[in-house]
Structures are given as C-alpha cells and as structure tokens.
Design brief:
Layout: H1 3-23, H2 27-52, H3 57-87
Length: 100
C-alpha cells in the first residue's frame, strides 16, 4: 500500500470531521468532528514519516497530537457537562446569557 492510500483515508477522515462540525448543531458532534480532524493529521504525520522521513519526527508529532487530543477531550467534556447542567441543552446556539 502506497502513500496515496494513506492520504486518501486521511482526506476522507478530514472531510467527515469538517462535515460533522459544519452540519451538526450539537456540541458533542462538533467535538467528535475535531477529534476526527486531529486523527486525520496523525495519519498524515505517520504516513509521511514512513515514506519520506528517516527519523522519528512524524511519530513524535503524532504522539504529541494524541496527548493534546486527550487533554482537549477531557476539558471539552467537562465544559459540556457544566453547560448542560446550567442550560439543559447541548446546542451551542441556545447557550447565551447576554441574549435577553
């Protein structure tokens, strides 16, 4: 399997992430879309490192992005739980204290 196959999978995953962010109006789907975009970047890092690099740079960036994604998911889910507790909704458009 060549580099093109990895790039195609990464592009499809990136496109699904962007679609999930743009189309869905639920904050959980937005978080899932961000996670898919980060995983697409990880696939690119590792694939380019495998086919074009001779060091560990791509793999180290991928590990850093995985750690960053875990921290982002923990903080974002805590915020979502707090917002749901306060407003009883997970739709970002309905969460606005200054609207009234």
């Amino acid at each position: 399997m060549g580099l093109g196959a990895y790039i195609a999978v990464s592009a499809a995953l990136f496109a699904l992430g962007v679609v999930a962010i743009v189309v869905r109006r639920n904050i959980l789907y937005v978080l899932f879309g961000i996670e898919m975009i980060l995983n697409a970047a990880n696939i690119n890092f590792v694939a380019f490192n495998r086919f074009n690099g001779d060091g560990l740079d791509g793999r180290m960036f991928a590990i850093f992005v995985i750690i960053l994604a875990a921290a982002e998911a923990a903080v974002a889910l805590a915020i979502v739980l707090n917002v749901y507790h306060l407003f009883n909704t997970t739709k970002p458009a309905e969460v606005d204290l200054l609207r009234e």
